[in-house]
């Protein structure tokens, strides 16, 4: 699998994970709480995997690579809070930290997009990372409110869906980049030579 294909695959795995996690974060009366928690866990696992693949697909050191790595780390922190059986306070603190690290990762990748050529794909990438940062921040705020015995309403679910929308937009941007990125180069003699791997 070439780097472009890996990046696209990773982006869609992460997007799928954010949607599954958003479903798990949404209070649905017909679905048992245990099932929703499983959705949340599986979603974060997919997000961590997808972000790690996207980071690994970038060979040079860039803010996007760092941002994807931070998002993967943030998901792992959230997973630790879900599965390790800590006290309620520690679990919530881990979820807060994990979401803030993810928000930092999305913001870092966002900063890199401003330095790129202003194309439709980069515009989508900016919107996607911005929404992911906002969504993760809202999720962290919701848990902070709960820790302080304040009603957060459906803020966590809202943040989850904003993040999911951002992840889908980011995946669409990556797919567009992969499909339009030139896979041909000119040889020294002026002939067009196909590049098999990116």
Residues in helix, %? over 70%
Counted beta strands: 2
Tell me the major beta sheet: 2 strands, antiparallel
Q: Termini separation (Å)?
A: 10 Å
What report would you give on this structure?
By secondary structure, this protein is mainly α. A two-stranded antiparallel ribbon has the order 1-2. The longest helix is centred in the last third of the chain and has 28 residues. It is elongated.
Q: How do the helices and strands line up, and which of them pair or pack?
A:
Layout (H helix, E strand, L loop, with lengths): L2 H23 L7 H24 L6 H21 L4 H26 L6 H28 L7 H26 L3 E3 L5 E3 L4
Antiparallel strand pairs: 1-2
Keywords, please?
2 strands, disordered C terminus, 198 residues, mainly alpha, two-stranded antiparallel sheet
